[in-house]
Amino acid sequence: MPDDALIHDRDAGIDRLLQIMRRLRDPESGCPWDIEQDFATIAPYTIEEAYEVADAIERGAWGELEGELGDLLLQTVYHTQMGEEAGRFSFQSVVQAISDKLVARHPHVFGDETREKSADQQTRDWEKIKAAERAGKAQKGTLDGVAIGLPALLRALKLQKRAARVGFDWPDASHVLDKITEEAQELAEACDHLGPDEIEEEFGDLLFVMANLGRHLGVDPEAALRRANAKFVRRFEGIEARLAEMGKRPEDSDLAEMDALWEAVKAAERSKAASSED
Known about the structure:
The chain is an all-alpha fold. It has helices at residues 3-7, 14-24, 32-36, 39-58, 62-85, 91-105, 107-110, 119-136, 152-165, 173-193, 196-217, 221-245, 255-277.
């Protein structure tokens, strides 16, 4: 099929999208902005699009999810086009690699292993397979392969899980709580006596241990913080709504008034929750 016909064929599926990207990156006839991009400049957009997918799911915005998934797919197509131009890989080789990985990691589905396993056993088997894959990539260290570009809390969690597999872990959450007390005291001392670099370091240590506590409690730190963010937004919007009823905006108020309204919003939420349980 000629290039133009493929580009305008709405039923051509992934082939159409791949051809569109080839045209956008064409040095002679493509888009100047697209031609100038490289892996490093596109990477931030890839991360952003992944978060927008997660945001649509979090909000239950199913009408938006289709478009957000398309935006995320475009990022894969963009990277693979640049990989093909550099002779490193292609869209087809990427598809082949992930397909091979899924088949290899699910011998209980695609091989001759039994499916009669607990979720815990399947998780242990999965980790054994991944460890063998890392060994094949000459990743010798326990922490090798934990991506540096992950969100910091997520990377902390993955680093801690890796270390725990080889026995470097507190036996239970009570020990982590003790460590949090210790790190909080060190942060307080840094605030009183040390400079910005030391304060940042101690603050990071405290966050790292908080992530570890989440792991011991079975709480995803990223999910917990997203939930806290959503609660803060909801309650602050409640403050703004109550101020608007008084003909005021937050900048026309003061901390004491807004704090009182915050408590009123909290109380209203708890009353509503209690009524829904009755």
